[in-house]
Write a structure and sequence with these properties.
CATH superfamily of the largest domain: Glycosidases
Shape: globular
Distance between the termini: 63 Å
CATH topology of the largest domain: TIM Barrel
Radius of gyration: 36 Å
CATH architecture of the largest domain: Alpha-Beta Barrel
Number of domains: 8
Length: about 1300
């Protein structure tokens, strides 16, 4: 039946609803209550009235189902209310179709649907009469707003009954059945079955015509902006059309995956600027094909529905055959016909094929405009809760007296715990009212609060907020009076300086205090404090320090990054503050002034952040350069405040070999703790990785305490509940390992929406992690870790905490659900994860406790027997010998220089060092450069240089050297030996490289030549092609200025017929000034054989693999630096073969690994034994991971099926469902075989498989023998140490 709009509906919505429910679909057979489209074979039940002849509402034991007529998209709709129980078979809503619906040739089922606000899954299907076949498809519906559901008939799958063949002649019913056991509701409207394919609609939210061409002739202009559409955003085109040129046009590119065959009409909403105008509207075929158009008239400035039938589109021009071929159409054109200035607006543009179009969502007149907890940060101490809801009436008349606000409270497990209703007073048109929901929370924890209203027209508005309920503080309630007496287990890294106001900073400090934490780590940014040399602005940090002092929080001050004016980067360099400062002296001056200013309040200082990452210590993360900076910063801080604790920068991960290099360069004497950032990809207990990381750095600096100044989990990777669980376990495990200071990253999410406990908005909601940490701090208040309590049950962890004069507490959890018995003659108090207490009485001297992965706390006086037997995980830290760091030393000049100094043979060279003096007295003496042939010096005394350095200053000392032209190329070991120094300086070893006049570096695309002399150098390059390959060197001659470099690109490709190979090298020479410099470069080239027949992916290795070449990783240089010293080839090595066909890439990897261990799954598999593949689909070899660079993890989680996980670069991370994988472990030979297929369609940019196609490629194998990830071996590079596609090798598809 045609739908009737209610009286008073404004014209705007009339126009919108024409799009939502096509009025161009006339009725066919009023008695059947069905509407048919212009094309025979499309049938719609509008439910106005209901056209289904009867409903069967059937429910199994314990289930119920009912139906009710309610407000639809327009007119009426059908709501199904249900409660599906686990007791019986479930339930189904079965609707009989009108007998005159002729269903032969059906292609699509469509309807509008809306849910109840929670995600639901329903089986939607059809049923043949007389007990025939049932076919169905599972669909997901969540939102309360109308959405269009389209089900291609081809996607219906057989359920049961009949002969297993769907016969539309026999179909007489629609079935709707919820899949999950729960109560809920589903509302449906305009149930349609038709012989059409779904239409394509650009709703402009977002704009799917992503590539707009806005073209204008002489004197004309056109621009596109976003505007308010019929509902949601639309597009506005502002123009001036001149008579001087050909005019103008807006050209929208249609998405490539839109299949436009069968388009019946162009349907859209248009709005003009109030002037009557004509517009040419049409379509265009690709590759210079035909254009077709029709002229429409737009009057006034209201939204107008337009329908242009395909038959009305007339030929305009083009290079085609003059016939409209929808399969070739790839663009839409619209252009004003008259000259002048104005604008037009578009919304809901559809290529209409029949059936329904997406609904226009009507905004309810009564709307929940704001919802917030009436406590700072949404944290309530105690269970009295108040939530404020602000409601707006956007309608043209007052609301009725019957309106109500309904609210629902759910816990962290999404279980409903409370509901309520508040009467809404009459709200005048355009008015607003605030309501308060006051209630008592049932317990401590994390909760969501959803408020729902319904306006007089039946449209709902809903909004959700979150809040936390925590117990009042522990009775001691003390704040630390010094920087070393805190017993709080937890602390947080913060970004106070990024917050928008002092109110936010005060809120954050107070929330941290309420959580029971006492430690914060915050940046003190040099560039903010000293924006130009000698000009200081302390105002921001004065306020930050004051806010933390007021809340009783101790601070770790992160003395972070360069001022832009002091950076070693060239002027104008991006992120120049993340380059080290040009001199350590200027950094030391900043440190000294900052520490001195705040020494009465801040006593903990950290020198820089993560220098082992390129991003924070650019351009390359030199450990030697960082240690020079650390030494200067450490001494400056101690000079300003001798009582301060000053530590090295937190290193990303555990630092690995970078920490080793730091120790080798003397870092131990310039840090009061070893500091790391041990982020984990999953459960911190998986493979004991978290504990292993801490133990590893303890072993490297055994007399230094360990600090964690960053670590944590992202909610988008782990979910909010796992983030909470992993964090609390992490805090407890770190405390058990003796970690002295612990700052989770981060408290707020001002800079990252996924880490952290709370958002950065004033009054913003917290996450479950907040009440969980607060519970830990309250239950364990002022107690110290005593050891691990042995409870005699596998998979159970029990950490004992004790305090004099208080009952001991054990934090307990289990890898599997189980019950245990604890010996106790008295009742114990059990605290759940969020600190809710209950008493457990003993029975026969035992108390029974249920355990799971979510930890609990058990407190009782009789538990002291467990505490007395508890075994600590680490020994008490010994004080060690006093450290007396040197206050003066010799370093490189500049100290940031990477690698050895270069001496060009046959030329004059300068070699410099710097004497740095951070003592209070002048130092003087002579330096001798030993180990260099005397003939290289200009004079007999050229090897000696005198120095005299004032206090807190430095001096550069330069030696002049000229190796003869015949000097042997290579490295010369030298020593800078101080003579007669007062006070004495330590000698410094140096390595100087004797180089030719040109340094040659070769990668897979470029030969780079660097002039190491002070003269202009010119010459030629010769680079012959390897056998079977074609090599083109674009430029063979060069001229290079002193100290400059030139890059000579070359291209390399296999010749047709070249067979797959396992290795490839290129050899060439450079000739310049009579000197010939040969070079040889082994290239990382992987060649994939063409598969005449696709291999079966079962791990059994077809014969087809025999012809495939291997890419091998079995050399020590391919092993990660931290693993390299202990690595043996049997520890981990790999042989990878590749094949391809038109649709897939096939990979066979044989990994040698003495022990298989994979405790993780999904995106965390890199922490266990696993294979990682990386592809640069277009072989662009850009720095970093740019567009169309992909990383895949392959592994077999222990006890689970193998997984092929799409990681970095993919639009959505997750398992690759259309890939194939088999993993076979051979324990006898210590090998793991990975066989897999990857559809090329997954690697956007690669295209279909074709001979002689190239892509960037690398692979990496991770090794974990059960004590954490030891390291990895990588074929080329660019994956493990740095995500950098320019370091990938090349994968060639051979013919």
């Amino acid at each position: 039946m045609a739908k009737q709009l209610k009286a008073g509906t404004i014209i705007k919505w009339l126009m919108a609803l024409v799009v939502a429910v096509p009025l161009w679909m006339p009725n066919q057979g009023a008695s059947a209550a069905a509407a048919a489209a212009e094309t025979a074979g499309t049938w719609t039940n509008s439910f106005d009235p209901d056209g289904f002849t009867s409903w069967g509402l059937w429910a199994g034991e314990g289930s119920t189902v009912k139906q009710e007529s309610v407000t639809g998209v327009t007119g009426k709709a059908m709501r199904i209310d249900y409660d599906r129980s686990a007791l019986g078979w479930g339930l189904v809503a079965h609707a009989e179709l009108p007998p005159d619906w002729q269903l032969n040739g059906m292609k699509t089922i469509q309807f509008y649907a809306k849910g109840d606000g929670e995600e639901q899954t329903f089986y939607i299907g059809v049923e043949e009469k007389d007990g025939g076949d049932k076919y169905r498809k599972l669909v997901s519906i969540a939102d309360r707003e109308w959405t269009l559901i389209s089900i291609p008939v081809s996607e219906l799958t057989y359920q049961d009954g009949g002969d297993g063949h769907l016969d539309w002649d026999k179909v007489n019913a629609i079935n709707i059945s919820p899949e999950k056991n729960r109560s809920g509701q589903l509302t449906i409207d305009d149930m349609t079955i038709g012989a059409f394919e779904p239409s394509y609609t650009n709703s402009f939210s977002p704009d799917t015509f992503g590539d707009w061409g806005l073209w204008a002739g002489d004197g004309s202009q056109i621009a596109k902006t976003e505007t308010a559409g019929v509902a949601g955003p639309g597009a506005r085109f502002t123009y001036t059309r001149s008579d001087a040129g050909w005019g103008l046009v807006a050209h929208g590119s249609v998405p490539a995956d839109w299949k436009l065959d069968g388009t019946q009409a162009l349907k859209f909403m248009v709005r003009g600027d109030g002037t009557d105008r004509h517009y040419s509207v049409g379509v265009e075929e690709k590759d210079g094909g035909d254009k077709f158009r029709s002229v429409i008239e737009v009057k006034g400035n209201g939204w107008t529905p337009v329908s242009v039938a395909a038959s009305e589109l007339a030929y305009q021009d083009g290079g085609g055959d003059g016939k409209l071929d929808w399969s070739l159409v790839n663009g839409f054109n619209i252009s004003p016909e008259e000259n002048g200035a104005g604008y037009w607006e578009l919304d809901n543009f559809s290529f209409y094929k029949g059936g329904l179009l997406p609904p226009v969502v009507r905004e309810p007149s009564l709307k929940v405009a704001k919802l917030s907890a009436m406590k700072s940060g949404s944290v309530f101490e105690g269970k009295n809760i108040k939530i404020e809801a602000k409601l707006n009436n956007n309608g043209s008349s007052p609301t009725s007296q019957t309106r109500k606000l309904n609210y629902t409270v759910k816990d962290a497990a999404d279980a409903k715990v409370l509901t309520g209703t508040i009467a809404i007073p009459v709200i005048a048109a355009g008015g607003e009212v605030s309501l308060t929901a006051s209630f008592s929370a049932p317990r401590y924890g994390y909760f969501t609060f959803e408020a729902v209203t319904e306006d007089d027209g039946g449209l709902t508005s809903a909004m959700t907020t979150a809040f936390a309920v925590i117990a009042p503080p522990a009775s001691s309630g003390k704040h630390p009076q010094s920087q070393s007496d805190s017993r709080s287990l937890s602390g947080f890294s913060t970004h106070y300086d990024y917050l928008a106001s002092d109110a936010l900073r005060r809120q954050e400090a107070e929330l941290i205090r309420l959580s029971g934490s006492e430690l914060v780590r915050n940046d003190f940014l040099w560039n903010t404090i000293e924006p130009s040399k000698g000009n200081y602005d302390w105002s921001l940090y004065d306020r930050i320090v004051a806010a933390n002092k007021k809340s009783g929080l101790q601070m770790i001050g992160l003395l972070a990054y360069s001022a832009t004016w002091a950076s070693a980067a060239a002027p104008g360099t991006e992120m120049s503050e993340h380059y080290p400062p040009r001199t350590v002296g200027e950094y030391a001056d900043f440190v000294y002034k900052t520490v001195k200013r705040y020494k009465d309040t801040v006593h903990l200082w950290e020198i820089w952040n993560e220098p082992n990452l390129d991003g924070f210590f650019r351009p390359t993360h030199s450990a030697e350069a960082y240690v020079e900076l650390l030494k200067a910063g450490y001494l400056a801080a101690k000079r300003a405040d001798p009582s301060a604790t000053v530590v090295m920068s937190g290193l990303s991960g555990t630092g690995g070999s970078y920490l080793d290099d730091m120790i080798a360069h003397g870092a131990k004497n310039y840090t009061d703790a070893v500091v790391i950032h041990p982020y984990q990809a999953g459960d911190p207990e998986a493979g004991n990785a978290f504990v292993h990381d801490i133990a590893g750095v303890q072993a490297k600096m055994p007399n230094k305490p360990v600090w964690l100044t960053e670590w944590g989990w992202r909610t988008d990777e782990q979910g909010v509940n796992n983030q909470a669980l992993y964090t609390v376990k992490g805090y407890l495990l770190a405390d058990a390992m003796g970690v002295q200071k612990n700052a989770l990253y981060s408290f707020n999410i001002a800079t990252d929406t996924q880490f952290g406990l709370a958002d950065s908005g004033l009054g913003g909601a917290v996450k479950p992690i907040y009440p969980a940490v607060a519970a830990m701090n309250r239950v364990l208040a002022d107690r110290a870790y005593a050891g691990d309590a042995g409870l005699g049950s596998d998979g159970v962890t029990a950490l004992a905490f004790d305090r004099h004069g208080a009952d001991p507490v054990m934090a307990i959890w289990s890898t599997t659900a189980k019950t245990i018995q604890l010996t106790s003659s008295k009742a114990v108090t059990l605290y759940d994860f969020y600190g809710n207490a209950s008493s457990v009485a003993p029975s026969k001297g035992k108390v029974t406790v249920a355990l799971s992965a979510q930890l609990i706390y058990v407190q009782g006086s009789d538990l002291r027997s467990y505490v007395n037997k508890a075994v600590p995980r680490t020994k008490k830290l010994s004080a060690g010998k006093p450290v007396h760091p040197a206050e003066a030393w010799i370093m490189k000049s500049p100290y940031t220089r990477i690698g050895n100094a270069k001496l060009t043979r046959g030329f004059d060279n300068s070699y410099s060092v710097e004497v740095y003096n951070y003592s209070s007295r002048k130092i003087a003496g002579t330096l001798e450069l030993k180990g260099i042939p005397k003939s290289w010096f200009a004079s007999a005394k050229g090897m000696f240089r005198e120095y005299e350095v004032k206090p807190y200053a430095s001096q550069t000392i330069t030696f002049k050297l000229k190796p003869p032209a015949t000097a042997e190329l290579g490295t010369v070991k030298a020593t800078i030996q101080p003579l007669g120094s007062k006070p004495a300086l330590a000698a410094k070893d140096a390595a100087l490289d004797v180089v030719p006049k040109l340094a040659v570096q070769v990668d897979k695309k470029v030969i780079q030549l660097t002039n190491t002399t002070s003269l202009l150098v010119s010459g030629t390059v010769a680079l012959p092609a390897p056998a079977g390959w074609q090599l083109t060197l674009g430029q063979t001659s060069f001229e290079i200025a002193p100290g400059a470099s030139v890059s000579l690109p070359y291209s390399l490709a296999p010749l047709s017929g070249t067979k797959a190979m396992s290795s490839l090298s290129i050899a060439g020479s450079v000739t310049a000034g009579g000197e010939t410099i040969p070079f040889v470069q082994k290239l990382h080239v992987a060649t994939a054989s063409h598969a005449a027949q696709a291999p079966v992916i079962d791990g059994l290795v077809d014969e087809s693999w025999q012809s495939a070449a291997s890419a091998i990783a079995n050399e020590q240089t391919q092993v990660s630096a931290n693993y390299r010293p202990s690595w043996q080839v049997n520890d981990v090595s790999a042989n990878v073969k590749l094949m391809w066909d038109a649709s897939k890439l096939y990979v066979l990897a044989t990994v040698k690994d003495e022990k298989a261990f994979q405790p993780q799954s999904g995106g965390a598999m890199w922490q266990g034994d696993s294979l990682q593949l990386a592809f640069d689909a277009t072989n662009s070899a850009g720095a970093g991971y740019g567009a169309q660079v992909y990383e895949i993890q392959i592994g077999k989680p222990d006890g689970a099926a193998p997984q092929l996980f799409k990681g970095m670069g993919f639009a959505k991370a997750g398992l690759m469902e259309n890939g194939e994988i088999a993993v076979i472990r051979d324990e006898a030979n210590g090998t793991t075989l990975y066989e897999l297929s990857i559809p090329f369609a997954e690697l956007d940019g690669f295209g279909a498989g074709a001979a002689l196609k190239a892509a960037g490629f690398s692979f990496l194998v991770n090794d974990n023998d059960g004590s954490g990830r030891e390291g990895y071996i990588e074929w080329s590079s660019g994956v493990g140490d740095a995500k950098n596609a320019s370091q990938f090798g090349t994968l060639w598809l051979m013919n």
